[in-house]
Design goal:
Distance between the termini: 120 Å
Oligomer: single chain
Largest sheet: 4 strands, antiparallel
Radius of gyration: 37 Å
Number of domains: 2
Number of helices: 6
CATH topology of the largest domain: Tetrahydropterin Synthase, Chain A
Order of helices and strands: HHEEEHHHHE
Helix content: 40-55%
CATH architecture of the largest domain: 2-Layer Sandwich
Number of strands: 4
Length: 161
Amino acid sequence: MPQSTPSKRTKTLRSLLTAALIAAGSTAATMYFYDALAIRKASAGESPRKSAPAAMPSPIFVELDPFTVTLNSEYKRRILYVGITLRVADDDSARTLTRYMPEVRDRILSLLAQQNADTVQTADGRQHLVQQLRSEISQPYVPEPTSPRVNDVLFTAFVVQ
C-alpha cells in the first residue's frame, strides 16, 4: 500500500494546533513566574508587625471640676467659666494628678487668673493657654519623684462673660 501523504488541510491544522499550544504554554509560564515574583516581593517586604497588629492603648483622661475665674479686662470685670479634662500618658500620671488634685487646681486657678479676657477668646490665645497649662501641670509635685506626663489639655466648656 502506498503511504498516504498528509493533506494540506491536516498540515495547516497541525501547525495551528502547535502554535496555539506554544502560545498557551508561554502565557501560562509567564503568569506563573510573574505571580511567584510578586509573592516573593510581598513576603520579603512584610514585617512581623503587619501580621499581628498591636492593640492601641485606650486614652487615659483626668476630668477636673469646672473653674470660675475673674479675668483682667480694660473696661469691666469679666468672668471665665472653663471645664478642663487632661489627657495623660499613663496610669501613674493619672494617679499622681488625682493624689495632688488640690495643688493641681491651685496651679490652674493661678494661671487662669492672670489671663486677659480679650486674649483668651481668640484661637491663638486659647492655644497659648493650653501650652501654659500643660507646662504648669507637668511640673513635679513634691515629694513625688517623677512629673506627671500630660499629653494634652482639653477644654470641655469655655465661656467668657
